[in-house]
Amino acid sequence: MSTWTAGPGRARTAGSPWRNWAGNVTSRPVREVSPASAEELAAEIRRAARDGLRVKTVGTGHSFTSIAATDGVLVRPDLLTGIRRIDRAAMTVTVESGTPLKRLNVALAREGLSLTNMGDIMEQTVAGAVSTGTHGTGRDSASIAAQIRALELVTADGTLMTCSEKENPEVFAAARIGLGALGVVSAITFAVEPVFLLTAREEPMRFDRVMSEFDELHAENEHFEFYWFPHTDNCNTKRNNRSAGPAAPLPRLGGWFEDEFLSNGVFQAACSLGRAVPPAIPAIARISSRALSARTYTDIPYKVFTSPRRVRFLEMEYALPREAATTALRELKAMVERSPLKVSFPVEVRTAPADDIALSTASGRETAYIAVHLYKGTPHRGYFTAVERIMTAHGGRPHWGKVHTRDAAYLAEVYPRFAEFTALRDRLDPDRRFANDHLRRVLGD
User: Fold this and answer.
1) Quick one: DSSP state of residue 251?
2) Alpha-carbon distance 370 to 325, whole Å?
3) What is the pTM of this model?
4) Helix, strand, or coil here: 216?
5) Which residues in the chain show pLDDT less than 70?
6) Which string of DSSP letters, residue by residue, matches 8-64?
7) What is the DSSP string of 375-427?
8) Who's near 172: CB < 8 A, 6+ residues apart?
9) End-to-end CA distance of the chain, in Å?
10) What single DSSP character describes residue 248?
11) Which of 360, 269, 250 has the alpha carbon at shortest distance from 307?
12) Where are the alpha helices (DSSP H) in 221-276?
């Protein structure tokens, strides 16, 4: 199957600064390039080396950190898109690195195929999503990166390297979540399976009940997650399980009302009001937490796992040992209740099984994720600092694409294979062609 986009790449002197989706990160590269093939990408990296410039790749900018910021060459992968091939015998799909997840999901569904698990938004490029450890929720199925079977990487000297369990296995072990520090990913091969149906059951539930039944809810459902609304005792739970069918999608009007009108349109207005009048936030939270009603529907995976996210925000997320989740959540709730903080966004909680990727947030341990958000333009430092203090006390690992203040010294303590990753970085990028200030902080130099 051919790619969707072809033709020669583009290079230009950078004009206006680059900004991420949330608007909290800005950088001014010397030039921007849009290679149309892995070979053109390799040539651009060699050119940058001759010019003494560093290189970073940016997808759709959905990371809240400056992980993609550069003062050198900014690689935009918008011409590196499309499916290279589908191997039905091996049940894999090989896709160009700049392909948005939403286009991959739609294309796979047309072929009667699906990824096993995915995150709750699908705006990111595949390479951006896996490089920062994007994940959904799952009892048995892990992050998007854990579904990789091979990847193609352009290293600092312009070498095009294929990595898998059999080919360059030591690179494969780390590069599936490589933070952009080992090279530029040009293509990814994912495991896929025949498309299946999921039945989603969404149900309001009280906070104390979710806490007391958390282990049971996790064990009994293939995919369990919930949202707690600060300043209330209310949660909204979601259980996704495979179904024999028949399909029963959300009715168009009902789905639009909850996913677009309530979760985006009205929520946007409520957040704007809360930012302007913070004392109103607890009352808004009580209303918001009661607005979403119980519902059940059955559809193909990407229509169940993912939701539109049009309200812009900042986010911090920590991965904890799963057994620490309820303790940390109770501490978080108590902190909000005794503080003057006014929090307009719900707290999101998901899970993942242990995996074997060196810098995966679930590396070597059963994991629960606790994510906190604040509406764009809202002062976030006080809330995020207080949350981070709780999470780090439980050995939390920050999401690589979300706001945090941890450095290499801390991260080396919570990642047993941290030194393995940095040693590989020393070998593949000794001159730090792919470095920036953010990577210096989190990986050391």
Assistant:
1) P
2) 8
3) 0.93
4) helix
5) 1-8, 11, 13-15, 253-266, 291
6) --EEEE--SPEE-TTS--EE--SEEEE-SSHHHHHHHHHHHHHHT--EEE-SS---S
7) ETTS--HHHHHHHHHHHHHTT-EE-TTS-----HHHHHHH-TTHHHHHHHHHH
8) 150, 151, 163, 164, 165
9) 42
10) B
11) 250
12) 252-256, 267-276
Amino acid letter for position 81:
T
Residue 5 confidence (pLDDT):
36
In the numeric block, which tokens belong to residue 3?
């790619």
Give the pLDDT score at 4.
33
For residue 147 the two structure tokens come to 């579904």
**How many CB atoms within 10 Å of residue 88?**
12
Q: Which of 210, 205, 243, 241 is nearest to 223 (CA)?
A: 241
Would you state the pLDDT for residue 286? 81
Q: List, in order, residues 6 or more apart from 356 with CB less than 8 Å away.
A: 173, 363, 364
Tell which phi-psi region holds residue 250, choosing left (phi > 0), alpha (psi between -120 and 50) or beta: beta
Question: Per DSSP, what are the bridge partners of residue 166?
Answer: none
Assess contact for 40 and 9: CB atoms under 8 A. Answer: yes
Question: How far is residue 222's CA from residue 139's CA, in Å, rounded to a whole number?
Answer: 5
Of 436, 442, 401, the closest CA to residue 119 belongs to 401
pLDDT for 7 equals: 43
Residue 160: CB atoms within 10 Å = 15
H runs (alpha helix) in 65-187: 101-110, 126-131, 169-175
- Give the 3-state secondary structure of residue 142: coil
